[in-house]
Amino acid sequence: MKYLIGTDIGTSGTKSILMDTDGHLIAQDLEEYDVLTPHPLWAEQWPNVWVDAVKTSIRKTVEIAGVDPKHIVGIGISGLYGGSGVPLDENMEPVRPDLIWMDRRAQEETEWVKEHVDGKRLTEITGNDVVDPYYGYTKILWIKNHEPENWRKIRMFLPPSNYAIYQLTGKVSIDHSAAGNLGGLYDVNTNTWSKEMLDAMEIPESMMPEPLVDSTTIVGGLTNDAAAELGLAAGTPIISGGVDVGAANVGMGVFKPGKYVAAIGSSMNAALVSEEPIKGQGLIVWPYPYNSEHLVYNFSGSATAGAITKWFRDNIGDLEVHNQHNGGDNAYVALNKESKNIGPGSEGLVVLPYFMGERAPIWNSDAKGLIFGLSLVHTKAHLYHAFQEAVCYALRHSIESTGRDLGEYIVIAGGVTNSPDWVQMFADVTGYAVRTPIEDAEANLGDVMLAGIGTGTLTVEDVQKWQVLGNPVKPDPVRHDIYNKYYQLYRKLYQDLEGDMHELSEVEKASEKMLGSTVEA
Questions:
Q1: For 371-403, how does the pLDDT look when each residue is reduced to its tens digit (9 = 90+)?
Q2: Does the CA dihedral 110-114-116-117 come out positive or negative?
Q3: Is the Cβ–Cβ distance between 88 and 158 less than 8 Å?
Q4: Residue 215: closest CA among 263, 286, 137
Q5: Using CA atoms, how far apart are residues 383 and 513, in angstroms rounded to an integer?
Q6: Phi, psi of 364 (to 5 degrees)
């Protein structure tokens, strides 16, 4: 029997799995860590945290599996959208932390691009019709503008997964999905770096890594030192699985256009794979990890989907957390039990889930979280239920942004699938039947499939025979009718309050300046 490893570097943890070539999960390990947030709306990470987690999770997974390392024939490594990418000097050492996807500091750079770069050409070349601090190229410009000493040291930017691969193989590469996810520097028409856009942004082309590869290309083999650390054979092939949400789609068996998958972790990435970019809808567009030169990944979703329920648990669910630490139910399980019998609409509560601004489809860094409709009848259970509904509303908004019929069912993956009641809620809110993965290993599963295809161990036909999805959960028509009304209110609330959200941000900024002046005085 041959085996494959899939490793995914996430925002809050790195997970590895080991599978056999019949699609059976043999072993897995998760290593967790935190994001650095030195200022409001900033989010960054030193890359050694990722590399250490990759090495530890792979080593532990191999130890748990207890299989002969010689029979492990390939490793696929995917990663979170790395924002700026890891800034590396001429010795391939990190110059500063990576500004990751959720970092929102590049507001001035966003405005500069809008004023100085031809927006029509930007869309024609990159497929993206919105300029926003979410994109990696605006974060690169922020480093250039605010940290000139660091900028002079930087030789190259590598995404988290490709930096980890470099540490394991000594080989530099970048997959097309990660390159496209920088936003303004990659040409989706030619699948190359865009010299025109690099020149327009005043970013040296030499800072963009080569070669650009499909996620079924072997980019290198484990070095002797890395192999010894991991307990594997030297030369074990590694492929670059790409941006994790794209790898998750592959893991759900999507190898052709037309299927809609929402991967919901700390954030939500809900995407439709197509042959041509979906333009004019504010979606984020980049090459799909599989068949990168012919398939496009069009996505949107909530920046803080799972993050808002984690916030709720940590700040409001202190009793549930305490009970968990003392042998009780997991805090999320307890909160789900408490809210299980709350009806659709949470007895008149609507939550806007914009706790860190919002990217596609509304693209507003000043968007704020909101709890609307509170009364004395409401309990913690009502609130938690409304937070869950907010994530469902955000998914429906993303679905509608594609402007397409998505067929009989959609696929939802991620931690939310651990709650059957929440899965039913997604079906009731969206009106689509929902299928979920059998194993909790979406991006990792995609990494295994891509590694299998890349090493010739598996074919697309082989992995499509794997049973990866459970039976569909169908929407309840009565609940769907009720949710239609709440969803319309959800959309209207944002439209009504958008101006107030911008004004609140200006008040915040002015207050910070005033307080700063007082401290200096």
A1: 999 999 999 999 999 999 999 999 999 999 988
A2: positive
A3: yes
A4: 286
A5: 34
A6: -145, 105
The 10 Å CB-count burial string (b at 16+, else e) for 236-257 is bbbbbbbbbbbbbbbbbbbbeb
Distances in Å between the Cα of 297 and the Cα atoms of 27, 41, 212, 263 are: 30, 26, 17, 13
Phi–psi pair at 135, nearest 5 degrees:
-70, 145
What's the predicted TM-score (pTM) here? 0.86
Whole-number Å distance between alpha carbons of 86 and 94:
7
Q: What is the pLDDT of residues 130-141, one digit of tens each?
A: 899 989 999 999
Task: Quote the strand ranges of 276-317, DSSP E.
Answer: 284-287, 296-300
3-state secondary structure at position 433: strand
By the 8 A CB rule, do 281 and 403 touch?
yes
pLDDT of amino acid 518: 59
Instruction: Count the helix, strand and coil residues of the chain and give each as a percent rounded to the nearest 5.
Output: 45, 20, 35
Q: Going by C-beta distance under 8 Å and a sequence separation of 6 or more, which residues neighbour residue 481?
A: none
Segment 414-443 shows an average pLDDT of 92
The pLDDT assigned to 520 comes to: 54
